[in-house]
Amino acid sequence: MRRPFCPSKLTTTANLLCFVLFILFLSGILELPSSSYYYNFSSSLQQAFRWDNNNTNISISHRRDYGFTDLVGAFREWDSQVGCARFKQRHSVLSNASSSSSLQELKRGITEKKKMEHVKVLVKKWKWLPDRLENLYYCGGSGITCLWTKSPLLADTPDALFFENSLPPLQRKIGEPLRVYMDLEAPRKRTGREDIFIGYDAQDDIQTTYAGAFFHNDRNYHIASTKNSAPLVYWSSSHCVSQRNKIAHKLLSMLSHHSFGKCLNNVNGRNKALSFYPHCSSSSSSSSSSSPKWWDHLHCAMSHYKFVLAIENTWTHSYVTEKLFYALDSGSVPIYFGAPNVEDFVPPHSVIDGTKFGTLEDLASYVKALANDSLAYAEYHAWRRCGVLGNYGTTRGLSLDTLPCRLCELVGTKGGRNASTSVI
User: Fold this and answer.
1) Torsion sign over Cα 129, 133, 134, 139
2) Do 184 and 324 share a domain, yes or no?
3) Fucosyltransferase C-terminal domain location, by residue (predicted)?
């Protein structure tokens, strides 16, 4: 360690001051300023992502494990050098069950006195709604029981009629079922005919996120314990939206990748993932007589890549779709382009928000550097090891998985068929 430079012609007072500064520096009272823990997107990668507590320093620009593949080893290294206690301290504001204007409260609908003990919902028209929601539920928070069914026999006197992307009846009289309409597409438009509207935004009567398991129950969840050193990025898209294709084409031209979908395909055809990862064919769906579909092995194939590129069709507030949650569930790090408030829906430090970088070249450089540093990469998986942090518990709790009880509770507080004609 060098002594601070003091010019030879300084006065005695100046020399004394210089000596005092030197003593303070040696004692640790005077410290050099440390770089920020968070990535400064306007700075160079040399300033990116550092831990500075207790002399433990992660720098993706100086600490490289070229082409590391052992994810378990990276996790163990992160546990020993960083750990959950320090990660939670860094994210203390987010690690508490913080509220967000982007998300409704989980217990919405049971704050009012319930008027019914049992609620029946008849699903009349649907597009994406999975059959596995069909069930008789006990809703513990309210004590209401809830029958959710597509069978008019089981719900011959329904309290609510459910419509997805199909118009409800124009009018409703007292004594007739409430009209429920759900639209989870980007435009998210009310019809003007519904008594209860379900959408993806917190301002809707009932908010439903894409984070649940019911969207992908049949997927193969074999998660690879090792990552490819190359290619780095998984990409699959068969809806070739112009804006998305332009971003993907430019970014992926700078990163090694596999593109399995129709758009920008570079694996000699669609549905080729099983030829790369034949062990991914062991899902429950592929055991049937029908040929396995691409979605049967989606998560398993994704899990072999360090990164998954997820670009929404439309960049709309709170419109965070399964594209992002598939990547998180598969054990990869999403590179995300979409909702500007995406951080309200995901665990802290789990997603690379591509829109926060000045250029796609900066983003590509960051991804390459991160891919070569096992400790910095493992930091993006800290939420898997440290419990539910930030708003992520609420995001999962507001998913399609819990929709039947949340809807039945709201219908129950309004009185079902006996509700007035202007219940919301």
Assistant:
1) negative
2) no
3) 231-414
**Tens digits of residue pLDDT in 181-218:** 999 999 999 999 999 999 999 999 999 999 988 766 66
Q: How far apart are CA 83 and CA 232, in angstroms?
A: 26
**Cα(411)–Cα(423) distance, rounded to whole angstroms?**
9
Instruction: Examine the domain organization and report whether 129 and 164 are in the same domain.
Output: yes
CA angle 396, 402, 404 (to 5 degrees): 160
If one counts every other C-beta atom within 10 angstroms of the C-beta of residue 206, the result is 19
Q: Residue 388 is part of a domain; what is its CATH number?
A: 3.40.50.11660
Indicate the angle between helix axes 242-252 and 360-371, nearest 10 degrees: 50
Residue type, 172: R
How many CB atoms are located within 10 Å of the residue 229 CB? 14
Q: In whole angstroms, what separates CA 280 from the centre of its chain?
A: 23
What's the pLDDT tens digit per position in 353-384?
Answer: 999 999 999 999 999 999 999 999 999 999 99
Distance of alpha carbon 336 from alpha carbon 377, whole angstroms: 16
The number of residues in the chain equals 424
Neighbours of 103 (CB within 10 A): 21
Sheet holding 135-139, edge to edge: 135-139, 144-149, 118-125, 160-164, 178-182, 196-199, 206-207
Distance CA 118, CA 207 (A): 22
pTM over 0.85: no
Q: Which residue segment(s) compose the domain that 129 sits in?
A: 118-208+400-418
Asked if 307 and 348 sit in the same domain, the reply is yes
